[in-house]
Amino acid sequence: MSKSKNFLSDLFDFSFSKFIAPKLAGLLYVIGLIFSGIYTLIFFFGGLAALTSGEPIGLLALIFAPLGFFLYAIFIRVAIESMIIGFRTAENTARTAENTEYLRNP
Question: Which of 7, 26, 27, 82 is deepest in the core (most CB within 10 A)?
């Protein structure tokens, strides 16, 4: 219960002193993979339908649909990792600033 309460309090923190995106990174990745999977299945079955109707372009769709899924999964993963790196850099910088505050005011 306290975890959800902390999440809700972080969600409505209008000073933006706490970040919720790192907590949602896994969920964002899963959502991205689900949408990519749906698009891949549509593209794959469209290529299969084109191939059965005698159009050779359907073979390209059958080849590139899984390849596109894996490339998009890599892209989403790298994008989310880049976002997390930015948040961790901000947190570590804030912690460093707090730890060196005594140097400014001797």
Answer: 7
Could you tell me the end-to-end alpha-carbon distance of the chain, in angstroms, rounded to an integer?
Answer: 43
The pTM of this model reads 0.74
Residue 36 token pair: 């990519």
Residue 39: the pLDDT is: 95
43-58 b/e with 16+ CB inside 10 Å = b? bbeebeebbeeeeeeb
In this predicted model, what pLDDT tens digit does every residue of 19-72 receive, in sequence order? 788 888 999 999 999 999 999 999 999 999 998 898 888 889 899 999 999 999
* CA dist list (Å): 90 to 14, 20, 97: 18, 13, 10
Asked if residues 26 and 20 have their Cβ atoms less than 8 Å apart, the reply is no
Residue boundaries of the structural domains of the chain: 21-101
